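Need the bound structure for 2-acetamido-2-deoxy-beta-D-glucopyranose, inputs here:
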Amino acid sequence: MAPPPSSATITGQMITTVLLLLLLAPATHGARSMLPRTDRDLLEFSLNLEYLEAEFFLHGSMGRGLDHIQPDLAGGGPRPIGASIANLSPMVRNIIMQFAYQEVGHIRAIKSTVPGFSRPQLDLSVKSFAKVINKAFGRHLWPPFNPYANDLNFVIASYIIPYVGLTGYVGANPLLKSDTSRKLVAGLLGVESGQDAVIRTLLYERAALRVMPYGITVAEFTHKISRLRNKLGHGGPKDEGLFVPAYQLGRGMITGNVLAGNTNSLAFGRTPKEILRIVYGSGKEKVPGGFFPKGGNGTIAKSYLRKRKLDDLSSHV
Ligand SMILES: *[C@@H]1O[C@H](CO)[C@@H](O)[C@H](O)[C@H]1NC(C)=O
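Answer from helper R.:
Posting the output first, comments after.
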């Protein structure tokens, strides 16, 4: 029979437990706090876009968002405005649902690396998307473009979003200092560009189809959306629709452009500033709007928003 544990062995066990906790605590916290400041800021910046993508795909495919799927990741942030389930065929719904869970994974991965923030206010309403499309065409389409109406509209609306995240990761990568951050960004980039490829392929197959009731081809939609992003981003041509003019050689005479890239077919990179100008729809990183009516969160987005407040103050003096 084993003797009852003496108070000495109990104290010994307690000391071991305390030591273990001390060892484990900095290990789980360490990856976060050890990251250089710029890495942390850039990784946190991308959370804004991942929230946007996650909520759009979750709601579009299932009619419910992060608050149902993994509420702790939303962190009590406000519910997205106007997000809705889309009228999708089983195949497209299935693909979008996979995208949705991929985005949830991305948020989880980012938030386990940097402290991050709660979900910012997002506007995923028909009005918000219709505004982008109207701006892209330079006129009011009637009825307003509804991303949730059918497969084609939803995939066109999807063309608007992950590509911006992709260019952000390409832009952020050379600025990152730690292996941890670069590994994470490579992993995020790989899947974001995969999503973009799937979206573009689905659209490429339907390039000549006319989006009803507007009678405008799918190719023209992509062309106009890409052109708008280039204009808003103000960082040069970093966006291309499903076809490019034949004079852009280096591609032979092939005008098909199922994937966007520069003359060496390297993905384009965008800075946080350019991305904010696009997702705010304002063309100004200081002026929130569009999908982020109150602006993004995190050090980078907030620093621009603060600048605007300062400008406003000084203009009133
Ligand atoms: C930004 O994130 C912090 C931390 O989650 C939160 O307390 C704050 O309310 C957020 N701000 C906005 C404008 O969403």
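Comments: Residues 36-126+150-316 form a domain with the Ferritin fold (CATH 1.20.1260). Confidence is low (pLDDT under 50) at residues 21-30.
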